[in-house]
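Long-time lurker. I teach an intro course on protein structure, and each term I like to show students one example going from raw sequence to a predicted 3D structure in C-alpha cell notation. This year I'd like something fresh instead of my usual example. Would anyone be willing to generate the C-alpha cells for the chain below so I can use it in lecture? Attribution to the forum is fine with me.
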Amino acid sequence: MHSVSHILTGFTRKTFVILATMATLAVACGATGFGSPATSTPSPNHLGFDVTATNTDQTVTMHVGQKLEVVLRAGQGMNNWSHPTSSDESVLAPIVDPAATAARGVTLAAFEARKGGDVTVTSNSGPACSPGLACPMYLAVYSLKVTVTP
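-- Reply from a regular --
Happy to contribute to a lecture. Here you go:
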C-alpha cells in the first residue's frame, strides 16, 4: 500500500511536469506571437537589405536575388538568440551581414534568396541564469516562414 507522502510526491512531480510543459509551450508560442501571421513586404533599407524580419514577424515573401536581414532582440531574463539558420540553404543561403556588430542583446543574420521555394528560418533562446542557482528548463523558439518567388 502506498503511503500518503509517496502519493503526494507523485502528484507533485506530475503537476510539475504539466506546469513545465505548459510554460514551455507558452514561451514558444509567445516567441512568434498569436493571431494572424504578420507578413513583411520588401522594404529597402540603408544597409542594402530588401526585407527585414524581427521577433514579431512570422512570414515573409521575397524574390530570388533579394536579401533578408533577421533582427532578433533577446527578451528580458533571456539569453541572446542562437544564430538563425535556414532549413534549405539552396533556397535561402546565409551571407555576411555588414552590420554584424549588433547591440548587446541583439542577434543578426543575413540571407540571400537563391531560388524559388519555401524555407523556415529558426533560432532559439533559453533563460539567463545566475551560476549556482536553480534555472528553469525551457526554450523559446523563433520560426519564420520564408516564401521565395522566382
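Some talking points for your students: The radius of gyration is 20 Å. The beta strands are 39-40, 51-54, 59-63, 67-73, 85-86, 92-95, 106-113, 117-125, 140-149.
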